[in-house]
Specification:
This protein is mainly α. The chain is built from 5 helices and 2 strands, in the order E-H-H-H-H-E-H. Helix 1 runs parallel beside helix 3. The mean pLDDT is 77.
């Protein structure tokens, strides 16, 4: 029998189950001693996303995460404005129920940010349906 040489094509990375995935651009990982990890973390910490957006213009991966973080921050602010206005018109016990729903959604935003930070530090990109579309328009 003859042995076949291994294929020269590296296996592709399948998308993770349960979520959409945008692969980072080709070009390898961060340079040794780089502050990429810090910049990705700052990208998802509300208004602090402006720091990597304005300081790391040469890194397209950090820019992508910073734009997504700012778009998520904008969506979060819009949500809070809507709930504050809606809270003015909801009386009594319904207002208490609305406050409970607001709290659950806030926790959801927080959990989403943690997931985005973990995936970003790991070199992955997670698409958030409306938010990523807004970020790509920036």
């Amino acid at each position: 029998m003859s042995e076949m040489p291994p294929p020269n094509v590296p296996p592709s990375t399948p998308p993770p189950p349960g979520g959409s995935y945008t692969p980072p651009p080709a070009g390898g990982g961060p340079a040794p001693g780089s502050d990429r990890t810090l910049m990705v973390v700052l990208s998802y910490l509300w208004i602090l996303a402006l720091i990597p957006l304005l300081t790391k213009k040469e890194d397209p991966d950090v820019q992508w995460h910073a734009k997504n973080g700012l778009a998520l921050f904008g969506v979060e602010i819009a949500f809070w404005i809507v709930t504050i206005i809606a809270g003015q018109f909801v009386p009594g016990m319904l207002g208490c129920g609305l406050a409970t729903i607001e709290c659950a959604i806030w926790i959801g935003f927080l959990v989403l940010r943690v997931i985005l930070i973990v995936k970003g530090v790991g070199g992955q990109r997670m698409r958030i349906p409306v938010v990523t579309d807004l970020a790509e328009k920036m």
